[in-house]
Specification:
- By secondary structure, this protein is mainly β.
- The protein is built from one helix and five strands.
- The chain has a single domain, classed as Beta Barrel (OB fold (Dihydrolipoamide Acetyltransferase, E2P)).
- The strands form two sheets. Strands 1-4-5 form a three-stranded antiparallel beta sheet. A two-stranded antiparallel sheet has the order 2-3.
- The two termini are about 20 Å apart.
């Protein structure tokens, strides 16, 4: 979905990362999370953008990723 007037695109993702696996990102051992969008695209995200979504048991949910016209990260919002 491309938003009018902003040039931004919104992509729906399902992300599930157990806490023990996210520790590699948290420790700086990995810096990119790879997720598959609902439309089948493979998305590479900087791990740091997921930190606000991290709970005690990890990350598990559906999110809306917004990217700009240059495919750069704009925002990541949980779907409620």
């Amino acid at each position: 979905m491309v938003e009018k007037n902003t040039g931004c695109q919104t992509i729906r993702l399902q992300i599930t990362i157990p806490a023990h696996r996210y520790l590699a990102y948290y420790r700086g051992e990995a810096d990119t999370v790879v997720a598959q969008a609902n439309d089948g695209r493979v998305i590479h995200l900087p791990a740091e953008v997921l930190r606000p979504m991290l709970k005690h048991d990890g990350i598990d949910g559906e999110f809306l990723l917004k990217i700009d016209e240059n495919d750069k990260f704009v925002s990541l919002t949980p779907v409620v």
